[in-house]
Amino acid sequence: MAIPRRLFLALAGAALAAAPATAAPKVYAVTLQQMAFGPAPAGLRVGDTIEWVNNDIFVHSATARDKSFDLELKPKARVRMKLKQTGTIAFYCRYHPGMTGRLVVGR
Amino acid sequence: MLKALGLAAILAMGAPLAAQAQAAKPNDAQIAHIAYTAGVIDVTAGKQALAKSKDKSVRDFAQEMVRDHTAVNDQALALVKKLGVTPQDNPTSKALAKDAAAKLKTYAALNGAAFDKAYVANEVAYHKTVNGALATTLIPNAQNAELKSLLQTGLKLFTEHQVHAEHLAAGHH
């Protein structure tokens, strides 16, 4: 009897500890202008949304080196994507490979 | 005698210097014309590459040149219309156009890998030349703030294109 109870408490504690991580997902903008990606937002978590905002007059792409995303960004377009994995994801523009950036996604 | 020689030398030098000074200090109407001409030249070269090349990386690059330079030139046209400026032909534009016409003709006779190599090598050289002109002449002399800003965007774009062309050239030895 004592053991399951302790186990239950431990599970409850773990659930409580995990609670802050399940805070409401946020939407962050990453702006592209003058042939460059703007700074990547800090504190990204799985479930958050990145909104790519292309302020240039050129077609760009937001393309992950690990191929986890590849979005075509028409001039003046805003395209949203949900973060599904943790880790550091390097990205670039397929059309202008000199344009690069990194997303750091936590749990 | 020496004095006379000196004066003649100065006069002889004077004409080209004046011409250079004029070329070095273009007005906004001339700057707009030069930038637009430079864009058209690269779009035309890109279209020639799309008609001739079968190499995917070369075709992708050419497609990018056509798309990006068309975008800048559309923006440039909208700007000169808004500003009420009529782009003005000038010796720099004429020299660019003449050189480009000769290159188009030369490259028309090339095929396959020979064409790809020549096109990419010329894209590297061309973007270098135009970047130099933008940085040292066109941007510093542009009076209108919007024109200056568009030229600065153009310089960033051309610089990126130059890097892309250099990468391609490294793979097309």
Compute the CA-based radius of gyration of chain A. Answer: 19 Å
**Number of DSSP strands of chain A?**
9
Physical arrangement of strands within the biggest beta sheet of chain A: 3-9-8-5-6
Radius of gyration of chain B: 19 Å
State the helicity of chain A in percent bands: 10-25%
What class, by secondary structure content of chain A? alpha+beta
CATH topology of chain A: Immunoglobulin-like
The number of helical elements of chain A comes to 1
Number of DSSP-assigned strands of chain B: 0
- Average pLDDT taken over every residue of chain A: 86
Description:
The complex is a heterodimer of chains A (107) and B (173). Chain A has 107 residues and is of the alpha+beta class. Chain A has one domain: Immunoglobulin-like (Sandwich). Helix content of chain A is 16%, strand content 41%. In chain A, strand 1 (27-33) and strand 2 (36-37) form a beta hairpin. The two termini of chain A are 34 Å apart. By secondary structure, chain B is mostly helical. Chain B has helices spanning 2-24, 28-52, 56-83, 91-108, 112-141, 145-171. In chain B, helix 2 packs parallel to helix 4 (91-108), helix 2 (28-52) runs antiparallel to helix 5 and helix 5 packs antiparallel against helix 6. The chains are: A alpha+beta (107), B mainly alpha (173). The A-B interface holds A 34-36, 56-59, 75, 95-99 and B 64, 67-68, 71-72, 74-75, 152-153, 156-157, 159-160, 163-164, 167.
